[in-house]
Amino acid sequence: MSCVSHVSLSLHSKRGFDVRSFGTGTHVKLPGPAPDKPNIYDFKTTYEQMYNDLVRKDKELYTQNGILHMLDRNKRIKTRPERFQSCKEQFDLVITCEERVYDQVLEDLNSREQESLQPVHVINVDIQDNHEEATLGAFLICELCQCIQHTDDMENEMDELLQEFEEKSQRPFLHTVCFY
Amino acid sequence: MASDVREQAHGSVASQLHSSEEDRAFDMTTSEKVVELLNQAALISTEEKLIVLKQVQELIINKDPSLLDNFLDEIIAFQTDKSIEVRKFVIGFIEEACKRDCELLLRLIANLNMLMRDESVNVVKKAILTLSQLYKVALQWLVRTKSVSDMQEACWDMVTQLKEDVLALLDSDNDGVRTYAIKFTESLIITLSPRTPDSDTPKKQEGDISLDKIPKDHTYIRYDTLCDEGKLALEQLLKFMVHPAISSINLTAALGSLATLARQRPMFMSEVVQAYETLHANLPPTLAKSQVSSVRKNLKLHLVSVLKHPSSVDFQGQISTLLLDLGMSQSEISRCTPATVQPRKRLHHEPYVEGKRTKMVEDDDDKEEPAPVVTPKSSSTAGTQSSIDLTAEFLLPLLNPENVANLVFCFWVLATSATISVLLSPQLGVLIFSQVRVKLLARLVTQFEGGKKNDLLQFILEDMRGRSELAFSLLFHEYNEYLGQQPSGSLDSYEHCLFTLLSGLQEKPEQRDGLFTKLVLEAPVITDSALEVIQRYCEDESRVYLGMSTLKELILKRPSRQYQYLNVLLNLSSHEKEKVRSTALSFIKRMYEKEHLKDCIEKFALTYMQFLVHPNPPSLLFGAGEDTEVAASWTEETVRQCLYLYLSLLPINHCLVHELAAVYTEAIADIKRSVLRVIEQPIRGMGMSSPDLLLLVEYCPKGAETLVTRCLHILTDKVPPSPELVERVRDLYHKRVPDVRFLIPVINGLEKNEVIQALPKLIKLNPIVVKEVFNRLLGTQHSEGSPSMSPLTPGELLIALHNIDSSKCDMKSIIKATNLCFGEKNVYTSEVLAVVMQQLMEQTPLPILLMRTVIQSLTMYPRLAGFVMNILARLIHKQVWKYPKVWEGFVKCCQRTKPQSYNVLLQLPPPQLASVFERCPEMREPLLQHVHAFTPHQVHSIQAHIPASVMAVLEANSRKPEPEPQPELHHPEIIEEREVCCDEAEVATDLFFCFVMYIRV
């Protein structure tokens, strides 16, 4: 399973799954001192470098909004953020948390040359990009993944499962299938 | 240093397997290494096994392909592994092996065929993916071969059959399988249509075969046939797409396939655009709202990708209109529209579309491609070998004891039949080991008489697993025989075969291989006797799950007789064996979710429940077939039998509860009692928020009062009642059925004054019920769970009991109720009782039971004596003698509390003191002595307050005769005995001495 989202969708929801986290944009954006002043890094920057950069800029602010905590955790999991479009591995399921990201994933997957015809399901769950929503969303996604993992036959039960979740969470899900 | 050593040691342990391999790799040949890995694989866990098998695959396919042949069977043997992942690996291996060496298709296609029928959908899906690849590989291989051998023909026949099988899976019940079938169809259409200059061709597929590369004069492969098959596949895909109930994911997959087709085969552009238009105008009504969004988003994405293709030029108008509808702006659309037009290319494929294929032969672009450059290594050597060598080479690796046994058996069967012995030519030896062998043998045997058939059946049953193919072939041939003899054919022989196989399997100890299920599901017809065997499986406790899951598959996959199969399962829902019954119920519950089965299941459940209105249980319940009543009477067991299914459906479909109420009102008392006993779980499962339960409470049908009460009790047993439930009960009580018992379960949800008003009625109920009421009010229920908030504090409750109007309730009941309070010593502490006494004492008029409560409190808590003296003194001020019953108690209290009470008595006015002595003459003397014993100091302070009139009363009676005996005299002992006893019955029969008068009430 894979989870594509903005980096800030922390790795909360991923215990127990074979999960990878990706960005899809051209850059990694982290909240800055104001909504219009995000911190922007390219995909070559390591979490360590981002962490140090933010500590230098305003340790207080980034401790308080949880960004440092998140970066700290992320850097223990992998060195730097990855870009989905650059990853050539095959996944069974991709979850995105923003329609724009979902569109980018679809565009990328559809632009690849089909070879094995192995399906990959892409699901979007809209989650506002703030810490609180991300935590709530993370639990929702985690629960969803758990349910999917417990299905005997993911593809056959996915439709029903998603509709159940939609109803329960009161959020519309987007769902499609692409092929490698 | 120490840590270094440890680390090294640790490291070497961790990588032992790895390093030992590497060490030995120097000395070991690849072949030896493979042998070792395969030996390991047989013994380790699935995860490790996969790793090892992948290593083997790498070694024999990529590193040293000459080994492939040697180890093929060892790897393929894992196709029956328990693990789905291992079986999937085998499929992947088959794919890689055949890509490496096409000749292997001859051997492996049968294995793929078998895996395509695997019981796990995940294996089937993997097999579909692999067939997508191998179809192309096989076609390319045959096209290259100038002279196609019989073996190759048989192989291609099977590939073609597999292709048909997968196309048929577009109708599979499984959403995922259909998705894979769609992708297979897409790939098939691409292969079976010509690549044209305007085709988009993915780089990796540039070498792939397609129709344009197939020579029209090939000795075996027919261009026209393939072309027709390709078109048929496209038709099937287009037809599939317009199915009104297509799932969202299938639709998404199909939309993508169409876009791929349009780009790679622009000749289909028109069909694709038309399909998109149709779909856009008629989105399946079964899609949920968010699914519609997902599908529209996909449609947009694919339309754009089609629009970008240069050959979309003739369809730009239609596509733009669709995109505008889907919310894309004109400028965005323009950006995606290609500028140049290539009209010649379009002309080029028109002939194909219109079916005039002959034109293509003339078209110079479409001249046959040169023969593929890659030549299989094996084919060059094959020419120099004789056919016998080839046969031997093919046979040898396949020989093992089992095969030889089969072979011998087959020969034996064949040899005993003179008419066919001619077939025993050397060539048959080859056939014996192919699929053909099995079919041939089966075909032969169906010609035989019964004895030979039984021999063969027994032979199969000896190793059902190894001989399953033979079993299936035999079965199919029997069926074919039957079909061939239509309309007068008999199914007897087929039925005998199926029945023998199924019952034979039942006698085998192990059942893990799912052969039973496979046999049932693949049998062309399930005869009555076969269904009986299935039922036997279901009734066998060790096989119940297997039996029922097979039955479930039959119900879901054989719609023509699904109700007959469902009925078998439904009948098992009241089976006497608990395991059979509960398994059946859980299967039925899952099927109950299917709309088309729901009615049938519900009807069955209700029919059974409605048996309960009959005076006797129907014979159906005792295994008899007919619905006639027998003279047995209802028992707990027969009542339950009628309710099992109903009760398991109830928590899923709450509105069924009204049917229960209807039956309940008509049923006899014994049945009512049984019903009340069995509904606990289902009612609890429904919960108190169930609208249907609330409705039942509100409209409690006449005769169902006890049922409703029971429901209320179940619902509130562990949790406090919800306001909604309280409201319904209150309505029911006030407007429809004024039975106070309804209020008990929700009593803690009522207002304080409501409870007080209901108290007189409540305490007149059966003592056990009253106890229940008090338990609820005092929070002394035994059950766990959150303590519900009582509307009355314990003190308020006891006071309320004292204030019950004696015209509304007899005193005996009130006393019993107060006794219940005193029984809860943990709740009624000395503090609580002190407050109660204080408040009661301040009331005017004084409550009748005041002094009883004072005395009882004092008995429970002797240290309250000082407080009680105060109370007594205050009562003198309230002229307690004006309340005859309280006064009587007052005197008794003084008598029990002497000598502390002397000072209180001395405060009484003389007439009342005289009255005390009339009742208790023995008190006078001690009191007089008490006064005399005052010290001079006390005389000054207290005796001064003793008026002469009082002294006169104290001294006056010393000359009086002994007083006549009073009946109350015997009671003090009874008090002692009674106060300590909390026994319900004793409390009920006992009355406090000072209220003897009330016994008459």
UniProtKB/TrEMBL annotation, chain A:
Any GO molecular function: protein serine/threonine phosphatase activity
A GO cellular-component term linked to this record: nucleus
Family matches, as Pfam families: Ssu72
EC number(s) given by UniProt: 3.1.3.16
Location(s) in or outside the cell: Nucleus
Enzyme class (EC, first level): hydrolase
InterPro entries reported in the protein's UniProt record: RNA_pol_II_suA (IPR006811)
GO biological process: mRNA processing
Reaction(s) catalysed by this chain's protein: O-phospho-L-threonyl-[protein] + H2O = L-threonyl-[protein] + phosphate; O-phospho-L-seryl-[protein] + H2O = L-seryl-[protein] + phosphate
Keywords from the named record: Hydrolase, mRNA processing, Nucleus, Protein phosphatase
Record family assignment: Belongs to the SSU72 phosphatase family.
Record's function text: Protein phosphatase that catalyzes the dephosphorylation of the C-terminal domain of RNA polymerase II. Plays a role in RNA processing and termination.
Protein name listed in UniProt: RNA polymerase II subunit A C-terminal domain phosphatase SSU72
Native source species: Cyprinus carpio (Common carp)
From TrEMBL, chain B:
Symplekin/Pta1 N-terminal domain ranges (all copies): 121-337
Domain Symplekin C-terminal: 739-920
Pfam families: SYMPK_PTA1_N, Symplekin_C
First-listed, main subcellular location of the protein, grouped into a coarse class: nucleus
UniProt-annotated location(s): Nucleus
Disordered as annotated region, ranges: 1-24, 337-384
SUPFAM superfamilies given in the database record: ARM repeat (SSF48371)
UniProt-listed Gene3D superfamilies: Leucine-rich Repeat Variant
Keyword hit for GTP-binding: no
InterPro entries registered for this protein in UniProt: ARM-like, ARM-type_fold, Symplekin/Pta1, Symplekin/Pta1_N, Symplekin_C
PANTHER family, per the entry: SYMPLEKIN, SYMPLEKIN-RELATED
Protein name: Symplekin
Native source organism of the sequence: Cyprinus carpio (Common carp)
